Amino acid sequence: MNEPAEARDAASAPPFWRQPRLWIGLIAAIVLVAMLSGEMAPGVGLPLLVVAVIGFFACAILTGEPPVLQRLAEKVRPQEDHVEGEPAVHALIAALPEPALLLTPTGEIRTANSRVALAIGPAKVGDPLSFLVRVPEVLEAVRMAAEDGIPRRVEFAERIPLDRWLEAHVVPVQLKPRPDASGSKGAAPAPSKPDGVLLTFRDLTAQRRSEQMRADFVANASHELRTPLASLSGFIETLLGPAKNDAAARERFLGIMGAQARRMSRLIDDLLSLSRIELNVHVRPDTVVDLCGILSHVRDTLGPLAQDRAITITLETDGSAMPVRGDRDELIRLFENLVENALKYGGTGQNVDVRIAREPGTQGDVAAVSVRDYGPGIAPEHLPRLTERFYRVDVAASRDQGGTGLGLAIVKHIVARHRGRLMVESTPGKGATFTVRLDLSDDAAKNSVNTAA
Ligand SMILES: Nc1ncnc2c1ncn2[C@@H]1O[C@H](COP(=O)(O)OP(=O)(O)OP(=O)(O)O)[C@@H](O)[C@H]1O
Ligand SMILES: [Mg+2]
């Protein structure tokens, strides 16, 4: 497809037998010979002159010169695929950033760029389009566009090998100059059928997925807010009506209403933090903080919850400082979420082990923080979806614990902002281990470390 320039120029030059100058010279020579021989041998000159005149018309028809004979030449010459400047068309198709094919009006592949092979499949010049694309709507659009010259757009979905959405643009094109393009001035160009169809594809999958995620997110967020709101309205009605004078019921209902209001406010806080972290995800924090200090702070904060569940949080370090470039509040939030999950879903009466260790990484050492519980664990099919917003393995169990299903989505974004890695390992029945790896910042630590816990 990437021919050298000389080859393209050679291919675009008309063949020698279509050079008018050659034929004019040849005929002039024949006429001259005919006239001279007429002088010398009477009786030979006239037939030669007739042959010369016939030859002239024949070559005029073949070469399309002069213009008055162009139409006749068009009719007599065999219809070839060759288009003036076709190599340039090939080069243009090859340069397009999207998968693109040029088709004949009858739907055969004339040329295709290399992106077609990657996105659609291997395209062979001369094959009908239907060998490559088996979507009836696209084939029909190509047929109609070649017929009426109107561009079309077709959206279609593929299920195999992967779900994806594509958009095909079908644009009829006029590659050969119109017969009257250089002809009579002022006359309207004669309507002619397209002599090619440009077919390009656009992958809409990423766009569709993000639209779907946005729609799911709005639906989930409104559902999560509406549930406590409905409960609040119900209790208000009860308190204004049947339970108006029931002091005990009022006491109990107000307690539930308080819990629901806190749940709503927590959900709004989580949504706001998620969008704030997402907004700053490309800005890596530039302060240096000590992870050991952050982890002991988290262990102390969650001490009361651990006590309630008869769980012991153990914190294991090698005693050395673990400085990382990070946002202290966000890192506290990250490890609070992981340790809280381990406490909530790890089963009562068990241990939760938090361990920090230095490990060699690709660019210097990394700090690996693992949070391990000994609860029921997580089935493998849930693991890839855990960090999706509102995704919960057991919705009722999470709600009972006051969960919003946003914790791990927040964790994922904080880890991304810190250019770290999150790994989840779990064997059902044997607990789960969440590990976060962050680059250590030993050099920066020598200048300033915020170790405040
Ligand atoms: N250590 C764990 N063991 C078992 N399941 C877990 C563990 N951690 C998370 N999960 C599962 O993953 C789900 C998503 O966790 P995530 O932290 O995102 O939400 P949540 O805990 O339900 O709500 P929130 O964190 O907002 O309070 C949980 O609902 C739970 O089903
Ligand atoms: Mg959680």
Count of distinct structural domains: 4
CATH class of the largest domain: Alpha Beta
The 3D shape can be described as elongated
Number of strands: 12
* Termini gap: 64 Å
Question: Which strands sit side by side, in order, in the main sheet?
Answer: 2-1-5-4-3
CATH architecture of the largest domain: 2-Layer Sandwich
N-to-C order of helices and strands: HHHHHEEHHEEEHHEHHEEHEEHHEEH
Features:
453 residues, alpha+beta, Beta-Lactamase, Helix Hairpins, five-stranded antiparallel β-sheet, 12 strands, disordered C terminus, binds adenosine-5'-triphosphate, binds magnesium ion
Describe the structure.
This protein is an alpha+beta fold. The protein has four domains: 5-76; 86-178 and 192-203, PAS domain (Beta-Lactamase); 209-279, Orthogonal Bundle (Helix Hairpins), CATH 1.10.287.130; 288-447, 2-Layer Sandwich (Heat Shock Protein 90), CATH 3.30.565.10. The chain contains 15 helices and twelve strands. The protein has helices at 5-12, 20-40, 45-63, 70-76, 86-95, 114-119, 136-148, 205-240, 247-279, 291-301, 303-308, 328-345, 395-400, 407-417, 442-447, and strands spanning 100-103, 109-112, 152-158, 164-173, 196-203, 288-290, 312-316, 323-325, 351-361, 364-373, 421-426, 432-439. The strands form three sheets. It has a five-stranded antiparallel beta sheet. A five-stranded mixed beta sheet has the order 7-9-10-12-11. A hairpin with a 5-residue loop joins strand 1 and strand 2. Helix 2 (20-40) runs antiparallel to helix 3 and helix 10 crosses helix 12. The chain is elongated. The protein starts with a helix and ends in a 6-residue tail after the last helix. Adenosine-5'-triphosphate binds at residues 270, 337, 341-342, 345-346, 373, 375, 378, 386, 391-394, 398, 403-408, 432. It catalyses: ATP + protein L-histidine = ADP + protein N-phospho-L-histidine. One of its GO terms (cellular component) is plasma membrane. Its EC number is 2.7.13.3. One of its GO terms (molecular function) is phosphorelay sensor kinase activity. It holds the Pfam family HisKA.
